[in-house]
Amino acid sequence: MNKICQILDCNTDVLLFNKDTYIVSKFKELITENFRRKFYTELKENSNSSVSIIFKKLCINEVEFPVENITWQSSSQGIKCSILRVGSTGWQGGTINIKVSTYSFIKL
């Protein structure tokens, strides 16, 4: 099976998951917002801490390793969907892989 990977750069294309459809721009917005909401959620055990705060730096003994970005990526198998591209004549089946990153810039 020959896999072709294409970035969804046309924000007016339409994605179909089962019975739900999304314009690509809205789908990207929903995924990004969901990631941010979960990433910045306060942890119940420690109300002064969130996932983002915990991962700002990693420590081994007394050595600190600052983190510049964190990336979440969907399964490499992808998620089944179909796409209707602007100007095409029908739906094209395939899978979608999602990658979301957060970047924090550290001033030196």
What does this protein structure show overall?
This protein has 108 residues and is an alpha+beta fold. It has one domain (14-103). It is 19% helix and 41% strand. The protein contains two helices and ten strands. The protein has helices at residues 24-39, 51-54; strands at 14-17, 20-23, 42-43, 46-50, 57-60, 63-66, 69-73, 79-84, 92-96, 99-103. It has a four-stranded antiparallel sheet. Strands 3-4 form a two-stranded antiparallel ribbon. The model has no long low-confidence stretch (mean pLDDT 81).
Keywords:
KGK, two-stranded antiparallel ribbon, four-stranded antiparallel beta sheet, single chain, alpha+beta, 108 residues
Largest sheet: 4 strands, antiparallel
Helical proportion, percent range: 10-25%
Domain unit count? 1
CA-based shape? elongated
Number of strands: 10
Oligomer: single chain
Sequence of strands across the biggest β-sheet: 2-1-8-9
Give the ordered list of helices and strands: EEHEEHEEEEEE
| Secondary-structure class | alpha+beta
- Gyration radius from CA atoms, angstroms: 18 Å
**Approximately how much beta-strand content do the residues carry?**
35-45%
> Which residues sit in consecutive blocks of at least 5 with pLDDT less than 50?
none
In whole angstroms, how far apart are the ends?
48 Å
Number of helices: 2
Task: Compute the average pLDDT.
Answer: 81
